[in-house]
Amino acid sequence: MVIFMVKENTHLLSAERVRYKIRPSRITKVISSNLSMYYLGSIIPDSGVYCCRKSVHDISYWLHGKKGNLTNKIIFTMLDKIKKTYNGKDLAFVFGYCTHCALDITFHPIIFYLSGNYCDSNVLKLRKAQYGHHYLETYLDNKFNKSFKIHKLINPKLLNDVSFVPALIECMDRKNINYTRALMNQLWFDKHAYSRVLFSFFSFFSSLRPIASMMYPVLQQDVKHFPKSIKYRDPITGTRKTATWNKLFDESFTLAEKMIVAADKYVHNEISKKQAQKIIDGKSLDTGKIGVPMSMIKFTV
Predict the structure, then answer these.
(1) pTM, full prediction
(2) Of 209, 217, 224, 285, which cross-links 104 as Cys (Cβ 3.0–4.6 Å)?
């Protein structure tokens, strides 16, 4: 099973920071009145990878734009429905979803560069890249997030109260999608992410070590240190860049705020879809670029 994401608990932290950053009272009221839905939206794109069924697993790849597909299709499918219903639960969910997109778009390019080629045909190199990717995300969550845990704040039954799955069925032209089981698996894994017994089990098998690196005990077994200022290259263009973790967080919060404001204005007919799509533009959550699949990543350590 191949898993890729900024750790979900970090997504909750991001959603909370963005919630307090946003100023328009119309938006804050929707979020405050439907906070659980906002949180759910912030982690839902990753849920599919926790299901062993390929048909469900691939949903998360599609939501992330792994093959270069536009990632805003699901957002505007839901927003178009909300324009008719003004459903606060759906809108709060989309707001949370936007925070997920913004964090991935900002962080994944540097994480993919630092961790290695995620599409390497060599199995050993691929596992090493997966391990490094997950380790770095676990490191960042442990460093910046001390309180938000998805298994404590997310109820899988809430998925039945939003139109996300119907929107998925429409977008992907499926007859039926069971996403709740994947979400339940995701929450179970988070609940046991500190388990040394499970960590030892996953660590024992080389093929499962990338999963072990998603668990917090890995930080004690394999101690690594990352500087505050990171020099890296854009994984697609090779452009040399420098960033700090705090700066990247701030950039993602700003992007999320812009996306949420655009979504809100579109729903209330204050801007056109074309204007909204200039901001919620469908970038890949892997490469941070429009229409650029993960397979085109060329520059890594």
Answers:
(1) 0.95
(2) 285
- The domains of the chain are located at 8-284
Q: Distance between CA 77 and CA 70 in Å, rounded?
A: 12
- pLDDT confidence of 1, banded at 50, 70, 90? very low
pLDDT, tens digit (0-9, with 9 covering 90-100), for 276-288: 999 999 999 999 9
Give mean pLDDT, residues 193-202: 96
As to burial, measured by CB atoms within 10 angstroms (0-12 exposed, 13-18 middle, 19+ buried), residue 295 is middle
Which tokens hold the place of 136?
């770095």
Q: Determine contact, residues 18/257, Cβ cutoff 8 Å.
A: yes
